[in-house]
User: Which sequence fits this backbone?
């Protein structure tokens, strides 16, 4: 996830729940349905050929509060800015989807857990540099993230993505800016202003 991306064309059509964030000139994000479908394909490919595969689930910490205080238009602007920043950092093979008002999914083929974890830390730093104008004044984006990688026990994309969601919940419980990873031998919590322990 260290280079720019010519994002995949397949599956980028708008869906009812995420249409405002699809098909723009800035990026083309997958619908949640297509994200799950292609994730299943990537899980099968990675399992068949013993290739690494990781996923990062991102929570935009500001969005629920903005929806409550300033409405969906401002929250949509936050999500759009977030997806633009992710898109700038993606590789050609990476897959991204706006999964909900405050959630972004990022699938990273040919990426081991440690590499995906570092990518999530880089995203956290990149998000902290994005400033938005809101009714309450300027604010910087803040995220939490959960990271998971497939294992020989991974059967399908749903269980694989659920691992990352579990880690995302753990990160949220630790506070804004936290990144958590899912494997027992590399599981860790990193908070804002701290470094990963290797």
Assistant:
């Amino acid at each position: 996830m260290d280079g720019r991306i010519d994002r995949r064309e397949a599956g980028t059509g708008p869906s009812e729940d995420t249409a405002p964030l699809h098909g723009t000139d800035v990026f083309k994000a997958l619908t949640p349905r297509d994200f799950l479908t292609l994730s299943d394909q990537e899980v099968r490919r990675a399992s068949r050929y013993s290739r690494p595969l990781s996923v990062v689930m991102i929570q935009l910490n500001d969005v629920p509060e903005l929806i409550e205080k300033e409405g969906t238009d401002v929250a949509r602007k936050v999500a759009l800015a977030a997806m633009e920043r992710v898109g700038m950092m993606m590789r050609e093979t990476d897959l991204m989807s706006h999964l909900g008002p405050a959630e972004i999914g990022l699938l990273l083929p040919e990426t081991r857990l440690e590499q995906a974890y570092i990518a999530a830390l880089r995203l956290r730093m990149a998000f902290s540099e994005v400033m938005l104008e809101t009714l309450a004044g300027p604010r910087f984006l803040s995220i939490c993230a959960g990271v998971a990688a497939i294992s020989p026990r991974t059967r399908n994309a749903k269980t694989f993505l659920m691992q990352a969601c579990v880690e995302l919940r753990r990160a949220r419980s630790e506070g804004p800016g936290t990144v958590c990873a899912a494997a027992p031998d590399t599981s860790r919590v990193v908070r804002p202003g701290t470094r990963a322990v290797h």
